[in-house]
Amino acid sequence: MMNYTRQTTLDAVKDLTVEELDFLFDEEANSIGMLLAHMASVEKTYQIVTFENRDLTEEEESAFNPALDLGKNAREQIKGNSLEFYLEQLEQVRSETIETFKTLPDEWLFEQAPFWWDRPANNFFKWFHVFEDELSHRGQIRLIKKMIRKRIFGSS
User: Fold this and answer.
1) Burial bucket for residue 18 (CB in 10 Å: 0-12, 13-18, 19+)
2) Residue 116: is it exposed, middle or buried by C-beta count within 10 angstroms (0-12/13-18/19+)?
3) What are phi and psi of 114, to 5 degrees?
4) How far apart are CA 24 and CA 142, in angstroms?
5) What percentage of the chain reaches a pLDDT higher than 90?
6) Can you tell me the distance from the alpha carbon of 133 to that of 135, in angstroms, rounded to the nearest whole number?
7) pLDDT at residue 68, rounded to an integer
8) pTM of the model as a whole
9) Cα dist. 44→12, 14, 17, 106, 150 in Å?
10) What is the mean pLDDT of residues 8-23?
11) Where does the pLDDT of residue 114 fall: very low under 50, low under 70, confident under 90, or very high at 90 and above?
């Protein structure tokens, strides 16, 4: 499921230019580049939360932001990068995820720990959320691409 989700994301961003990756349709929007950086940061965060069974340190949180939280700081800092830059981040994080998954027993997926609002959740749910988040943002990417085309070509 994660590989399928990633492939659909890669298909959605294929051949985008830096200008398209940085496009903001208004002053509060996310760019496609921001969303790709966010996907990599979310996955890295979940590696720590589930593989190491701990919260992020302040240093890690600082390193993963502004991509993790998005918003104003991300709009100011995440721009000017090529598609290859974002794809390399996504591939590096995903490779680490897959290699670690290979070392874990299936029972690990069902281990529970306090999660959102201190409610129990298992690792299967946590990793479902990683690609659910990517799917959601991939939808945003498709909408942003339509806005770009409309602005450039005057059509949908």
Assistant:
1) middle
2) exposed
3) -60, 140
4) 13
5) 87
6) 5
7) 94
8) 0.93
9) 22, 23, 25, 21, 34
10) 96
11) confident
C-alpha to C-alpha distances, 29 to 8, 44, 71, nearest whole angstrom = 22, 23, 8
Could you tell me if 144 and 56 are in contact, meaning their C-beta atoms sit under 8 angstroms apart? no
* Residues 56, 44: Cα–Cα separation, whole Å: 10
For residue 135, which of 27, 4, 30, 15 has the smallest C-alpha distance? 4
Spatial separation of the C-alpha atoms in residues 95 and 80, rounded to whole Å: 25
Max Cα-Cα span within the chain: 53
Structure tokens at 32: 């496609």
What is the C-alpha to C-alpha distance for residues 102 and 90, in angstroms, rounded to an integer? Answer: 18
